Structures are given as structure tokens and as C-alpha cells.
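Q: C-alpha cells for this one, please.
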Amino acid sequence: MYYTESEKIDIGKKIFLRKITKKEAKEQFRLSDYEANACVRAYMKSEGIPPVPVVEDAKGIELPDYASMTKGELIAEIMRKDIEVARAKKGYTAKGGGRTKEFRPIKD
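A: Here is the predicted structure, written as C-alpha cells:
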């Protein structure tokens, strides 16, 4: 079925704000999965909401249990992450600690 741009934005707004589910929108407006997603993207674009980045499969990555950390441990973890980000921007990583610390360039 054909919808105008403003109708697509209205449908996308309902889905985005969770007034209706994507499944309900697909049934009610006779949309495919792609068209429902396109409506949400049209709404986000009209409101200046940046697109959500696609995250690769995170299997095998162990994340810290932030809920069980103390305030001091959380602050230390944030500082460690900030240092890693700064090093990545400069193009190197660090391995080891103290006198045995090695700085290795990041390869493309």
C-alpha cells in the first residue's frame, strides 16, 4: 500500500514511541518489515534523531558486572576505558604493566 511521506512519519512515530508494536503496525497498515523500519527511519530523520549504530555480534566478549562494583571501582573502570580510547585514537595499545609495559601500534 502507498503512503505519503507525512503518513509514513506518523506511522513511524507511533512505532518509535511504542504506542503500537511493529507487528501491530505491520498488520494494521499492511506493511512489510522493511517498510515498517523505513517509517521509523523517516520519523527519526524528521525529528533529527541520529540513526542507531549497528552492533556486531558480541559473543565471546566478557563485560564487567558494573552493578556489583563500588563507586571507586566504577571510577577506576571509567578512567581505564578513557585511557584505552585515547590510546586507540593515537593508534597504539599497551600490554603489561610497570617496567614490562609495551606500547604496540594498532594495525589497520
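A few notes: Helices lie at 5-16, 22-29, 33-47, 71-90. The two ends are 46 Å apart (CA to CA).
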